[in-house]
Amino acid sequence: MKPLYSISKKLLMSNYKRLSSPCKITFAITYACTFLCKTCNIGRNYLANPKKIKDGELSYEEIGNIFKNSKSSWLQLTGGEPFIRDVYQILKSITEYNDELYVVHTTTNGFDTKNIVEQVKKILTLKIPRFAVSISLDGYEEAHNEIRGIKDSFNKCLTTFRELQKLENKHFNVFISYTSSPYNMGKIESFIQNLGKNYGIDPKYIHMNLYHTSNHYFKNSDQQKTVEYNKSVINEIRNYRKLKKGNDWKVSFFESRYSKFVEKFVETGKSPLPCKALNSSCFMDPYGNIFPCLVWAKPLGNIREFNYDFKRFWQDPNVVRMQEDAEALRCPNCWTPCEAYQTIAGNMAKSLIKL
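Structure (tokenized):
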């Protein structure tokens, strides 16, 4: 089955029924990270005990076996810092078995330019139909360095961005991912303007999302959003939409729906659409533990226990019950891009008429 046809068919069917296996898997390939971000504790946990964090990560062979059985069409790689591992080897293991993979997106802190660029060059030889890298950049120079806790990370990010831009083609794109949080509130407009004025970066390359809390992923559940933050972030997203320019129509469609639904999420604290976690997507950590999503700390089992067979895991009665809870929003509720985009695709009619 051709990859584009496969993903289109799966997302269409997710509007009407639960899929027989996940179309999209968000996969944290490592919790290793050397950053000290204010919005996340993954790096602090790693630096406190790096050996413990690295022990037990899924091997390349195990990853290949997982995706041989799952045949997922959409893969979101995250971390930690994904490029601490060999992302090329991971994707090579996956593509050797999975001929239905259409889109792969990975995040990076952008710090290790040489390693990231070398790996991306190798990944491009795998001829994945749609491959994208998002570099996390949360403010202009001083603000970003302070939020990320690493000196000179802003300049490293921009160097990586420029180098990856040279590799862009119809199959590969690079973006800047700006996470709006209490630590950079009110700065999105000046951020976009300064990047344009001083570095010639078109707003089309910038994607904005909201910071979230999660006990099992970000490990930042001690952080609380305030009423003031909620009021401010609505203003922020409106400013962003005024300055943002479009990408190709597929990216623009999902991003516009995501950003317009943000206001409803912030105002109500509820996902604006019935969630598609465990209908068409799920989250897997570096050790094979599976959760409905990266926000809901509800462990559903380990893929090793299911002999790496996602279809077998997917039909487990407990997983089916949890999917019903997710769709009814009996969950923490969120609106992260990692969960929102497939939810938009799986609620297409509502996505079009509810705005």
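The mean pLDDT is 93. Residues 249-268 form the longest helix (20 residues).
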